[in-house]
Amino acid sequence: MSGQTLSTRAPSMGAHYAVQLPAPDDFAFWRDRARALVQCEVLPDSVSWIEPGGTGDLFAQDGASGLIECLPVPERDARPARASKRFLSLARNVALHSDPERFALLYRLLWRLQSNPRMMEDKTDLDVRRVEELDKSVRRDSHKMHAFVRFRQVEDGAGPEGKDEHYVAWFEPDHHIVRANAGFFMRRFANMNWSILTPRGCLHWDGETMRESGPAQRSDAPDGDPVEELWKSYYASIFNPARLKVGAMLSEMPKKYWKNMPEAALIHDLIAGAQAREANMVAAGTRKARERPDSLAELAQAARNCRDCPIADCGTRAVMGEGAQHAPLMIVGEQPGDQEDLAGRPFVGPAGQFLDAALAQSGIDRSAAYVTNAVKHFKFVQRGKRRIHQTPTAKEIDTCRWWLENERAIVKPRIILALGASAARGLLGKTVSLKAARGAPIMLEDKAELWVTAHPAYLLRLDGEARAEQAALFAADLAKVQARLNALS
Question: Of 52, 301, 340, 462, whose CB count within 10 A is highest?
Answer without folding.
Answer: 340
